[in-house]
User: Which sequence fits this backbone?
């Protein structure tokens, strides 16, 4: 009723109301509200503004890195009507999102070296997966790929934003090869990074299936605790010389053929990136591979059958111009039996015999930029060594009837219960997409609520009747649903606090109340992996989820996915090494104990387990 007879992809978006903003001129409102978001942060992007998404659980679809990269890159480009090219040029006082119309090439990183890989043939025709695989293979066979990485400014994109802003300005001002390399990176729709093995540093090459019958840890299905730890950390941080954190999207390809995605989040919230990622993994499977793991078409004759050109032939006009004329299709004659039904195909133009080869870009760093690199490397090393990241599995929560329940309801409550048992009442954060508004971004639901605190006390008290405990559990679940509903409709507490902060900032005020409330650190940030509805991948295929850094030095960052028919719930837990308040293994034990208690209360079977 809103979109007409031929609705487009975003036709119904116009029926949604806009998020309410203060009554200022729109640019002022956007600056005031957006200034508190990621572009205004000056900390390193890997620790404050990035997250990662993982490949499907189990073995990769192909063990040839170049083939996986080609199929997934084509899938990204097909999705480009929704996710355009993005980059995040830094400023000394704030970053600025920029969108580029470029689409003629990809930026490819291998061993710290930068390559420009074309996306179109000489005549402007888009290259297909087999041609891209050939170009990516040339990058992997580059003679300098196995040597030490060259001196590049890549590590600066992982550090302090003010320092990188000054370095970038110097590189652009100097012109020459460095300015050209920056142009290739910033004008590419996304970056592809061919990484070494996350476990032993092996260079990318065509992987071989395991010979002893035992799959490598990252390919087990279901994965065991710790199997995906190294891969997850490599996706989030990666070798600093082989990343460009200014880009919104970096496709990471490992020697085994497994892939992953590193996302800089200020351009869009995780549901958008997850939709892109699941679309890409589904199309990757649909495009498929041959028995050798190559993209279909690799190694075929370079002179395919000449395509037929179809012509329009209009009948002569009648003498009476007012008479409507019927137009007919006339196809060229076919050699086959005219009585046999013929299947019509789309004909692709013939492949070029030698598409443009990848071009390596070089850097010429002025002394001022080179002098920044040692400190940037030290800071990155400290950041990487200080991150604890674990991927574990937990049992499905049970619903009232004993059937698997949506983990997005019971698992967050178990996370908060485990946190309360660790440190008492604390501040938690759950991002909620404001999907009921036009171009809505995420809002936050703050906990921990009074019903959960009462439930925790009741579980510790052996004299509390089971009926009372179950009533408190339902009250805690109802409060959590209410917080999420309020956030989705623009009435959440976090949105009100941020609106007050925006008004105070515009009026140059510093209210003590806002300073105290917004200055309190989050002890726990948690989020379910937001899969598209309906899912684009058929069961049992399922991504292994994703994760992010902890929200604070003394906090936890938790993401989870799966459950029910999608297999065990995979939980990604991150925290900082050396914090006296965090212990990921102890927190995991408390989480499993809390989940077991809540499952028993919800299912009504047996007494609750004693708290741990």
Assistant:
């Amino acid at each position: 009723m809103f979109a007409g007879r031929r609705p487009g992809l975003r036709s119904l978006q116009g029926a949604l109301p806009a998020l309410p903003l203060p009554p200022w001129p729109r640019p002022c409102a956007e600056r005031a509200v957006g200034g508190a978001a990621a572009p205004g942060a000056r900390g390193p992007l890997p620790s404050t503004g990035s997250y990662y998404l993982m490949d499907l659980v189990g073995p990769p679809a192909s063990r040839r890195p170049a083939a996986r990269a080609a199929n997934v890159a084509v899938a990204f480009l097909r999705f480009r009507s929704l996710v355009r090219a993005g980059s995040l040029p830094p400023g000394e006082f704030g970053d600025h999102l920029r969108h580029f119309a470029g689409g003629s090439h990809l930026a490819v990183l291998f061993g710290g070296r930068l390559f420009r890989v074309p996306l179109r043939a000489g005549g402007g025709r888009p290259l297909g997966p087999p041609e891209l695989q050939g170009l990516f293979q040339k990058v992997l066979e580059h003679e300098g790929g196995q040597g030490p990485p060259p001196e590049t400014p890549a590590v600066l994109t992982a550090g302090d934003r003010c320092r990188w802003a000054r370095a970038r300005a110097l590189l652009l001002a100097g012109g020459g090869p460095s300015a050209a390399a920056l142009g290739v990176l910033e004008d590419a729709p996304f970056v592809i990074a061919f990484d070494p093995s996350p476990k032993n540093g092996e260079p990318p090459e065509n992987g071989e299936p395991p010979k002893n019958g035992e799959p490598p840890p990252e390919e087990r299905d279901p994965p065991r605790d710790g199997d995906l730890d190294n891969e997850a950390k490599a996706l989030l941080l990666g070798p600093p010389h082989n990343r460009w954190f200014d880009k919104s999207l970096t496709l990471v390809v490992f020697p085994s053929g497994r892939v992953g995605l590193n996302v800089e989040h200020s351009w869009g919230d995780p549901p958008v990136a997850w939709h892109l990622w699941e679309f890409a993994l589904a199309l990757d499977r649909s495009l498929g591979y041959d028995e050798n793991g190559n993209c279909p078409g690799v190694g075929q004759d370079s002179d395919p059958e000449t395509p037929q050109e179809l012509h329009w032939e209009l009948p002569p006009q009648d003498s009476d111009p007012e008479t409507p004329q019927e137009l007919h299709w006339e196809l060229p004659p076919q050699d086959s039996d005219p009585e046999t039904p013929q299947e019509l195909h789309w004909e692709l133009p013939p492949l070029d015999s030698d598409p443009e080869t990848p071009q390596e870009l070089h850097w010429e760093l002025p002394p001022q930029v080179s002098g920044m690199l040692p400190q940037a490397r030290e800071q990155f090393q400290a950041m990487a060594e200080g991150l604890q990241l674990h991927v574990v599995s937990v049992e499905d929560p049970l619903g009232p009837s004993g059937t698997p329940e949506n983990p997005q309801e019971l698992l967050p409550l178990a996370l908060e219960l485990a946190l309360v048992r660790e440190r008492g009442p604390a501040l938690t954060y759950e991002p909620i997409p404001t999907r009921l508004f036009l171009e809505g971004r995420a809002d936050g639901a703050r906990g921990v609520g009074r019903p959960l605190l009462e439930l925790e006390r009741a579980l510790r008290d052996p004299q509390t009747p089971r009926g009372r405990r179950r009533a408190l559990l339902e009250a805690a679940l109802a409060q959590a649903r209410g917080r999420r509903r309020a956030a989705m409709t623009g009435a959440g507490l976090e949105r009100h606090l941020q609106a007050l902060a925006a008004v105070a900032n515009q009026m140059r005020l510093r209210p003590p109340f806002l300073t105290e409330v917004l200055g309190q650190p989050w002890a726990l940030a948690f989020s379910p992996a937001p899969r598209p509805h309906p899912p684009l991948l058929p069961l049992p295929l399922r991504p292994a989820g994703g994760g992010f850094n902890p929200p604070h030095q003394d906090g936890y960052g938790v993401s989870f996915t799966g459950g029910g028919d999608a297999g065990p719930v995979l939980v990604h837990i991150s925290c900082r090494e050396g914090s006296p308040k965090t212990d990921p293994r102890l927190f995991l034990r408390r989480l499993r104990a809390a989940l077991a208690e809540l499952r028993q209360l919800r299912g009504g079977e047996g007494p609750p387990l004693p708290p741990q």
About this structure: Residues 121 and 429 are 48 Å apart (CA to CA). Residues 466-488 form the longest helix (23 residues). The two ends are 55 Å apart (CA to CA). The mean pLDDT is 80.
